[in-house]
Amino acid sequence: MMRRLNGFILFIAAFIMMIPAAMAEEPTGLHxxxxxxxxxxxxxxxxxDFGQDGYCxxxxxxxxxVLTAAHCLxxxxxxxxxxxxxxxxxxRDGRAVAIRNAKLAIMHPDYDPNQHMTAKNIRxxxxxxxxxxPIAAAVAAPFAVTQLPRSKRKVSxxxxxxxxxxxxxxxxxxxxxxxxxxxxxxxxxxTFGSSGAPVFDDSAHRIRIVSLVSxxxxxxxxxxxxxxxxxxxxxEAKRALRAGTGVIGETGFKPRRLGVxxxxxxxxxxxxx
Length: 273
Description:
With 273 residues, the protein is α+β, with helices and mostly antiparallel strands. 15% of the residues lie in helices and 32% in strands. The longest helix is centred in the last third of the chain and has 14 residues, at 230-243.
């Protein structure tokens, strides 16, 4: 396991310039958003459920558009429809501020569902789910997507995860370990089910999304999560959605052929080596 882990880190390091260890700080722990007041401001982050086949984290970027990781959508692309896909905004202990069904979904046009852990796929690991009915901004205010400033070293993550899938958990501070080649690395505490979780920058008046959790590795002591430099990828995915290119609808979608021997990834979604 450690040989595979180290090999993956070396592979990603070829694309990312790592920040010197002296500049890194210890990340904060996870805070469970149990009470309604804990959730305030994060109502737009929710759990994206795929029937009985698993879930990911998703986040509203408009009143009817959920941003998540493209690899979360591989199974519905294989099935050819979005039936059973549901977004539960601000889900905590069985209660959600809003629940909507999916109408359409799309993976970024350059995401390759035949491949797993490659720098190119992490760079393009962006998916969009259009809801059948908008969620009012007064209920769950969507987040803007922007570039992470070059000088920014601290980010935060709000996510679900295996063993903590009943309510969101917030990590107020984790460190940007490196960036390059359109990729970002963070020492955020993420796991299965955290795929698609928004990575936030708080430099502006309201926090903004700068990346998504796509993949991660765990050593005995260190945690590293990987995501894409998001802004351009979201713009490209929106353009493809408007054009109807590769859209997964209620019926009739013929996905790109998935590779032989790639099993149905049931359960909480996450990529690891």
